[in-house]
Amino acid sequence: MDLERVVVRFLADASSYNRVLDGVNARLRDFARRTEAVSAIITAPFALATQAVMSLTRAVAESGASALESAMDYEVLAAQMNVLAGSAEKGTKLMDDLLKTAVETPFKVKDVVAAAKEIKAFGFATEEVVPTVKALGDISAATGTPMHRLILAFGQTKVAGRLMGQELRQFVNANVPLIENLAVVMRKPEAAIKKMVENGQVGFEDVVNALNHLLAKTGGFGHMMDVIANTTRGKWNQFVETLEISLMKVGGALMKGFGLGDIFDKGKAWAQGFQTDLG
Questions:
Q1: Is residue 106 classed as helix, strand or coil in its secondary structure?
Q2: Do 139 and 212 touch, CB atoms closer than 8 A?
Q3: What is the CA radius of gyration of the chain?
Q4: How many Cβ atoms from other residues are within 10 Å of residue 127's Cβ?
């Protein structure tokens, strides 16, 4: 009997002991959960701050690289403008005017510069480039025709000295009402204008006058770039181009500040020496 009582008491004590342990374990688990929650609250701001710093660092690095790329591209374009304009002074002014045109219009810097190079290639004087870009830009904005198509038709007419049938078709296909406006400025019926074109009797200056009339008349194509520039899309393009030009200037300052030209020269010399050593 004594043994039975001992066993019963032992089992009762063990059961009570297990209940205590279960309670302790439950409290420990609850404490662990609370500790994890507090730890998360404490460490979250530091984690967010670390992520923010890392993101900012990546953004700065990427912006710096983008600025350098833009600056190097600008340097090449500026050199091309210097050659096309005939001097560094004229080239610098032309480039500045083109950048200003890009910011004020819905066109991108690269599009405006490409248009200027095409116009210059057709023999236009340097001082005629920007006004021609703006005039054909207005027509392009009004008709939705890419500017390079208008430059091709206009430039070929200038080179020929007169309007030919092929160029007339190019204007017509570009949605430019050239015949109508030629009829007004030359004071001839449209049928007569077509015949004069066939006979080579419509000169380049006649075309210039007709396009100027188109741009100047009420309801014409004048200032269409301004109209498009005031749309949401136009304002977005202006913002992007302003940012691009700012990156160009920042990149230019970085190139000068770090002396990247000299660094690249030294790198080239090292690479050439390495090639020589390799035989």
A1: coil
A2: no
A3: 37
A4: 12
Which structure tokens are listed for 220? 């014409």
Would you put residue 217 in left (φ > 0), alpha (ψ -120 to 50) or beta? beta
- Give the torsion through C-alpha atoms of 102, 107, 159, 167, to 10 deg: -160
Considering the entire predicted model, what is its pTM?
0.69
Give the CA angle between residues 157, 159, 161 to the nearest 5°.
Answer: 65
In the chain, DSSP finds a helix count (H) and a strand count (E) of 12, 0
pLDDT in tens, 223-262: 899 898 899 988 888 888 888 888 888 877 877 887 877 8
Beta bridge partners of 162: 203
Residues 6 or more apart in contact with residue 94 via CB below 8 angstroms: 81, 84, 85, 116, 126, 129, 130
Convert the pLDDT of each residue in 4-42 to its tens digit. 554 445 445 445 545 544 654 565 566 556 555 555 555
